[in-house]
Amino acid sequence: ISWFLEHVLGFQYIMEAIEKGKSFKVVIFWIAVIWLITVIQHAANAVYAQMIKPKYEVILTTRIREMFYQKAWTLDLGSYDDTKYYNEFIWSLEDAPKRVIQVVISLQSLVKTTNAVLLSGAFFLTYDKLGLLFIGCSFIGNSLCQLYLNKKNFSYQRAVKTKERERNYKFQKNGCILR
C-alpha cells in the first residue's frame, strides 16, 4: 500500500500541484506524510524480521520435527536399512521446515503482488486503460516465471539430495566418519 501511495498517488499529486501552481507547503506536507508512512512501514518490517519471525520459525521447526520423530518412533528398525526410505525420511526431516517457511514467504509475496496489482489496476483503470493490460500481463508473466523456477529448483534440489543421502547412508553403514 505504501508503494502505491508513494509511487503512484504521490507522484500524481505532486505533478498536479506543480502544474496547477499550488503552494509549496502542500507539496512538502504530502512528502512528509509519505515519509512518515514509509518510516512506520520500515519499523514494522524490522520488528517482524528481528523479533516475530525468528520466534515463530523456531516454534514451527520444532513442531514439524517432533511430528517426524513421533513417526520415526513407531517405525520398524528394518525400515532404516532401505536406502530409498532412509533418503526420503532424512531429506523430509531436514527440508520440511524450510519448505513450510518458504510457502509462507511465497504466500506473503503473492498477497503483496496481488495488492499492488489491484491498486495499480484500479488506478490505471481510471486514467489509462492500456496500462491496465500491461499490469495484467506483467502479473501473469511474473507468476508463471516464478512457478516454473520454483519447480525447476525443487527438482534440482531433490536430485542432489538423493545422491547426497545415498552417499551418506553408504558411508555410515560401512562405519566411515563423515566430516
Task: Supply the key terms.
mainly alpha; elongated
Explain what the structure shows.
The mean pLDDT is 81. With 179 residues, the protein is mainly α. Helices cover 89% and strands 0% of the residues. It has helices at residues 2-20, 24-74, 83-127, 129-173. It contains 4 helices and no strands.
* Total DSSP E strands: 0
Distance between the ends: 49 Å
% residues in beta strands? under 5%
Residue share in helix:
over 70%
What do the pLDDT scores average to?
Answer: 81
Computed over alpha carbons, the radius of gyration is 25 Å
Number of helices: 4
* Topology as a string of helices (H) and strands (E): HHHH
Shape: elongated
- Structural category is mainly alpha
Low-confidence stretches: none
Question: What characterizes the major β-sheet?
Answer: none
Topology summary:
Elements: H1 2-20, H2 24-74, H3 83-127, H4 129-173
Helix pairs in contact: 1-2, 2-3, 3-4
Could you give a quick summary of the protein structure above?
With 179 residues, the protein is mainly α.
